[in-house]
Amino acid sequence: MNCCNEFSRSTLLRRAVAEAGNGLPAIEPGMPSPAGTGLDRRQFLSRTLGAALTVYGASALGPRVLDEGIAHAAATGGNGRRVLVSVFAPGGWDALSLLYPTGDPRYHKLRDSLALKPGDGPRFRSDPRLHWHPALKPLAALHARGRLTVFPAIGYSHPDQSHFTSRHFWEVGALDPQAGTGWLGRLLDVIGTEDNAMQGLSLDGALLPSLATARVPVATLASPGDYRFDSHNVWDVPGELLNDAIGSLGALSADPDPMLSQAARTIRQADGLRHQLGRFVGKDGQVHINPKAKYPETDFGRRLSGLAALLDANFPIRTAALTGPGSYDTHADQQGPLQDGAAQMAEGLAAFQHDLERRGIAGRVLTLVWSEFGRRAQQNDSNGTDHGAAGVAFLMGTKVRQHMVGEFPGLTKGLDRDGNLRATSDFRAVYSSLAEQWFGVDAARIIPDAARMPRMKLVA
Amino acid sequence: MPLPVYTGSFAPAQAERLLWRAGFGPRPGEERALAARGLDGAVAQLLTTGPDRLVGRPPKVNGRRLFPLDKFGHDHLWWLDRMVRTSRPLTERMTLVWHDWFATSNETVGSQRLMIRQNNLFRRTGLGSFPGLVMRVTENPAMLLYLNGLESEKGAPNENYARELMELFTLGHGSGYTERDVREQARALTGFTARYKDGYGWVKFRFDGNRHDDAMKVVFDKPGPYGWKQAVNLTITHPAHKTFFTRKLWGYFIPEPADDETQAALEALYVQSGYSTRQVLTAILKHPRLYEGPRMVKPPAVYLAGMLRTLGDRISTEDWVWLSIQAGQLLFYPPNVSGWNDDRWLDTSTFHARWSMAERVLRKHAYHPDHTKRGTVPSDPVKLVDRAVSFWGIQVSDTTRRSLLTYAQKAMGAAVADDDRQRKFPPMTLNALRHLVAASPEMQTA
Fold first, then answer.
1. Does the residue B227 lie in any domain?
2. Residue B383 covered by a domain
């Protein structure tokens, strides 16, 4: 609304990101301490001893550190493991705008003010009725290169139109409101180990529920750049001993009080994560990365570029989850927000794919992009759309096998009683197929309804 | 059905827990004063309403006062200051409960003025009748902006508020209403409007009968030409509401479900009292499970405000804004309409943020190793641990005390026969111990 407010807002938000490890100037020997961090040189040295992994964009590589990291990872078998990345588009994105059916006779009637024209976006090669939203051009290009499988109408039977319930179903991989573990979490319970918190990495401020496990640890990291524990006016031996002391606060993890032990377990996991990150860092505390593609200057872009670097450095990650850019609950005036979110999403995803390919590790990474539901076929009178049923999802990677799974059902016979798009593919079938074809795990151990679900050929 | 009431000893330890659950922890000595009143007196004291008295020095950031209506983050600091300095902690805590219950984010509303207006509504009427509160929330400007109420008119109802009114505010998902009920309620709720003033924002919020759909609707199988007040009342008198309300309110104060008898008694009390939040809250605050049951993880705002309240510190930095973002709770910006996920406050990422918060709180209290006179700080590890624990005025378990002592012994052990270290290590070790206590499971929960 006013310039200064916007400015202070962006400054503080940037600061929140910067303090999580991005954007601070790299510390080289002899450099002054970073401005504004309130640290003196001595403290900084003592805290880097603690175990920092600092990932910066576009800086020189610290050769010794990276060598050590790669050697260690190779020894521990991180190399070559397959990885699944889950990207959530929050709010229920409008499939009928992202892949808009100009070839369907009812489209312009249902979307009188929102309809896009045939020339607005690229043609969708797998179905002549559909076009890509102009903001998704980067995805159209990936699709043309065989790097993207499109699910034009994905959902489940008896669709639920609550954001929270429908998202929960997708996260737990079952139509079970009570389920307490995520589908990726259960996958990790099968393929993961008890000492590797990095195997399930939530690149978010909080643990994304799809990663919630019953058995093995997972980690959250707002940004891959930073995980240090420092204290003001503590250095030398007291500073060096501090990090181990933090871990010892986790000693209450068997306390009979469930909340006390939960807090203690979190502290233990934090300590474990610090160790994991620390293994890849030398005494100078630095690892530098060079992204091999141009990412958008967004949190999403930074997180994906950090993730690519971690994967390239052979961090033992098996699944990662993050929330994509945009907010898709577009009940009113949807064109602008949808355009902005979709553009940032597509640019970030395409940069990630290019980065992985240029690093030579794309063959072991698949990325699944999903939203809790699509939106109603009939637009509302606020230039927006209300909650619907089937939506659109993408699977990205060099190893994807198909251009399209499930067909677009059309706006005549393809709508249910509530006027929502019917699903032609089920997310539980996608999860089951990925469990088997990508991770070689019996889907029945992860997806409760696996036996009733068809399988799709997803992996080449 | 009688409601169970806690009959054990109401000592400072119990009073302290009550102050953490129903407020932001004690100021020094506050738990002793509250314990002296006994359980009934303590709960009555907390439930006293009326003008608040803010105790202590007002905020000063960059040498200036706050600009909560205009400057980004200052809304957060403004409320944090109230949590730190309030003499009506339960009123403030209930305001936080309602902010989570009727979660509204300024990300969408785009007006700190309207957000703070809504906040004051919670503060002013939050202990009264729940249906009264829902009425006020339904016509509240920030809520109308957040859930598309202004875009919902005759012939073009917007379902957003109608759905969340039932799913999140009064009934709960799967409690017996249908998609048709959502659509019919949306029609009943049509008619609100406002005017957009260029360069200022939305003004003149009002109900306009011409925009309202006054035709017949069918809600919960009952036909009627419902308006927005009836739409609210229909949810309150729906059989699922009393269960939803009592369970949800209970969950903010006690981390395990109520037993069946307590649950039934709370529901009966709620209905008999004419849907009084105060009556149900009183019963919850006196319930044995609050004192005998498990601890609860402090929400980030409570953790931070509690540290500042304990130490008598004023709000003096904008750092609380970005640190609170990292810890997962920027006030006025809940993640979505269902509020914050209270089961997931603590993880490796937010724990790290809490560590950073404690570091920032402690900075001004830290001893400087080069400028601390010898003897100001003891060098005996046991005494150092005692000093660090009493600094925060809390009790720690024997297990945690052993961890702290091990650290102090190792640190001081490295100073033996080294004069420079003998001088510098005690203050550094005490600084670190205070920080470790602040990070301990005991401090994260109450």
1. yes
2. yes
B226-264: per-residue pLDDT in tens?
999 999 999 999 999 999 999 999 999 999 999 999 999
- In 3D space, the residue among A233, A210, A207, A227 whose CA is nearest the CA of residue A219 turns out to be A207
Ordered by where they begin, the domains of chain A are 3-76+224-278 (no CATH), 83-222+299-452 (3.40.720.10)
Contact assessment for residue B349 and residue B66, using Cβ atoms and an 8 Å cutoff = no
Instruction: Verify that B282 and B388 share a domain, yes or no.
Output: no
Question: A405 to each of A253, A394, A429, how far by Cα in Å?
Answer: 46, 10, 11
Full pLDDT tens readout for chain A, 460 residues:
233 343 344 334 434 433 333 222 222 222 222 222 222 222 222 222 222 222 222 122 232 333 333 334 444 555 568 999 999 999 999 999 999 999 999 999 999 999 999 999 999 999 999 999 999 999 999 999 999 999 999 999 999 998 888 999 999 999 988 788 899 999 999 998 876 777 888 887 667 889 888 887 777 776 544 567 889 999 999 998 998 899 999 999 889 999 999 899 888 878 877 776 665 554 555 555 678 999 998 889 988 988 898 888 777 889 999 999 999 999 999 999 999 999 999 999 999 999 999 999 999 999 999 999 999 999 999 999 999 999 999 999 999 999 999 999 999 999 999 999 999 999 999 999 999 999 999 999 999 999 999 999 999 9
What single string gives the DSSP state of each residue in A328-343?
---SSS-HHHHHHHHH
**Least CB–CB distance from B70: residue in A5, A90, A264:** A5
Q: How far apart are CA A238 and CA A249, in angstroms?
A: 16
User: What does the angle CA A90 – CA A91 – CA A97 come to, to the nearest 5 degrees?
Assistant: 100
Partner residue facing B411 (CB), from A241, A258, A266: A241
Largest CA distance in chain A: 75
Domain that residue B418 falls in: 374-446
Domain-terminating residue out of B292, B323, B350: B292
Closest to A48 measured CA to CA, from A281, A286, A285: A285
A380, closest residue in chain B (CA to CA): B156
Contacts with A206 from chain B: Cβ below 8 Å: 328, 341, 344, 347, 349-350
SS3 B136: helix
> What residues of chain B, 316 to 375, have a C-beta less than 8 Å from chain A?
318, 321-323, 325-326, 328, 336-338, 341, 344, 346-352, 355-356, 359, 362-363, 366-369
User: B109: nearest CA in chain A?
Assistant: A1
Dihedral through CA B370, CA B373, CA B376, CA B382, nearest 10? 50
Query: Could you give the ipTM of this predicted complex?
Result: 0.90
Task: Give the H/E segment covering residue A288.
Answer: strand A287-288
Instruction: Output the pTM of the full model.
Output: 0.75
The shortest C-alpha distance from A197 to chain B (Å) reads: 10
Q: How many domains does chain B have?
A: 2
Beta strand ranges found along A157-240 (DSSP E): 200-202, 219-220
B282: which 2 tokens?
């009183």
B360 inside domain: no
- Using one digit for the tens of pLDDT, what is the confidence trace for B269-279? 999 999 999 99
B294·A258 Cβ contact <8 A: yes
Do B145 and B287 reside in the same domain of the chain?
yes
User: CB B72 to CB A6 under 8 A?
Assistant: yes
- SS3 sequence, A76-121? HCCCCCCEEEEEEECCCCCHHHHEECCCCCCHHHHCCCCCCCCCCC
Specify if B116 maps to a domain: yes
Domain boundary among B241, B258, B292: B292
Q: Are residues B52 and B157 in the same domain?
A: yes
